[in-house]
Design brief:
This is Type I-E CRISPR-associated protein Cse1/CasA. The protein has about 625 residues and is an alpha+beta fold. About 30% of the residues lie in helices and about 15% in strands. It contains 17 helices and 15 strands.
Amino acid sequence: MARRGSGRCPAGARRSAVTATTGGSAAPFDLTTEPWLPVLRTDGTFATVSLTGVFREAATIRRLVGDLPTQDMALLRLLLAALHDALDGPGSIDDWFELWHAEDPFAPVLPYLEAHRHRFDLFHPEQPFFQVAGLRTGSDEASALNRIVADVPNGEAFFSMRKPGASTLTPAEAARWLVHAHAFDTSGIKSGMVGDPRAKGGKVYPLGVGSAGELGGVHAEGESLRETLLLNLVPREELGFEPSALDSTPDAPAWRLPPNGPGGAAKGGGDRFPRGLRDLYTWQTRRVRLVAEESRVTGVVLGYGDPLKAAAPWKLEPMTGWRRSPTQEKKQKLPLVYMPRHHDPARAAWRGLEALLPSTAVPSGRRQESDGADHLPSGVVRWLRLLAVEAKFEPARGMLRLRTVGAVYGTQQSVIDEMVDDSVLLPILLLDCVPTEDRPEPPGREHAMTALAAVKDADQAVRALGNLAGNLARAVGSSPDGPTATARDLGYGALDGPFRAWLAGLGDVEDPEEQARPAWQAIARQQMLRLGRPLLNTAGATASEGRWADVPGSGKRFVNDAQAELWFLRALRNHLPRAVPPRADDPPPGSASPRLPAPSTSPEQAGPHDPAGSSLSAADQEAAP
């Protein structure tokens, strides 16, 4: 994925002092009327629209389609900030429903943008959009645009659409990357700006990534951009956030606040905290000035702005899940501290379903955070659950899509190693799963628990397939690590589409544990057997002869292809028991199972990953590869 460095610019990355100081001779570029937001329309066509156009045509736009998934998220937060500010709300569920059912819910945004259009000029001489007029370094030099264009790899530009780099940008492209830089820019040492008291020797040392860089981004996606904006329009009051009484700064987006200077916003050694979602979504983590020559942007002046700090960020930031941090609780001497829950780029979103759904085991009648839960769902999910439970809200077909987006940083957060972009389509019924005193068994609890159990079933099935590949490698004297990892990747790939389809249909099942879960276990078993057959068929004669090898959990064992096959089938039967019709002589659940007959070459019977063992059924023998 895209990799971007921070620190010194490569040769040729600097611009002339005259250009950097004067900013060139660019004509005004009004973001409210000029097209700069790339979108996919509901009819399948692509277009580029202005800020005014995106709100006017939101019902006919499917979604934003920026240069990167993280750019989509940054632009969505920008649109939400404008919408919150133009509507001055919503303040309650009733206000939100009025917007949802309104013929034109975004009508107030158009006069709002007109009133503030002077702050949306990308090249305004005094108040350029998301920039600082006259910003300069001590050497009056500007950096190459690679500093803000995140799809330019660090080093050799292999597999890049911008080779050798981003030499110039159109104003529309530059505006998108400008918004992205405030949200996802890397950390590292940056140039010190003239007038920034934090600069030492012309440098400012690492102050962290952009405002959304630490998030494991989660937001809802509707059938159109109109629905997407409304579904993520979370009232501040529903997040449990209360701004500090010591900070008199209003909750307003950056374009309604006084222009920034070259340094951070803190005065007198203090810190400024976000006052609400409008402030948060447009937080100026960087100080930037675009350098333009005629109709092209040719360079950028980039430094640190305001580090994002909040007393209890989990009560304000709605677009990420949270994990409890005992380490931070000790460090900050607080009873509860939650940190953003990051996405794992190696895991599909459905495999992290537990992080997306509300907890199914919260004590009755209390807020999750008051009980010190290990994990909290995102504020967006909590808001949608509130709509589903208290207001009986049901989107089209009763389905909800949650999109996950995030950046994975490396080398002290000075580069972007990978980006995460995935989504899960699930019945909104699954959000109604939190027990309370009035509703100890909410309608969606059993469905949610079944969905989470199905994820574990998938993990166990894939683990069995990986163990098969590893044991076959041991049988021929090879390292099991590579074959195990490859087989697991194949296993999750084979289950990806079937699980998503199964999850989407879960809401239509009356008894999920008795109907849907056996069906899923059957699918998982069938897919693992399908992938296991070629592994056994291509193992070769050496694997049939076998050898003694160290097997995790079992010590020294004799392993050949026959033993590996038996262990594989037994693991599938033990972990996916409802996928195989029970035999008449099967022991009741929970009782001791008879062991497999020990091979004559094996010193003991217990399998490597399931020492208890169990006998193979006739169905297992017939289905063996």
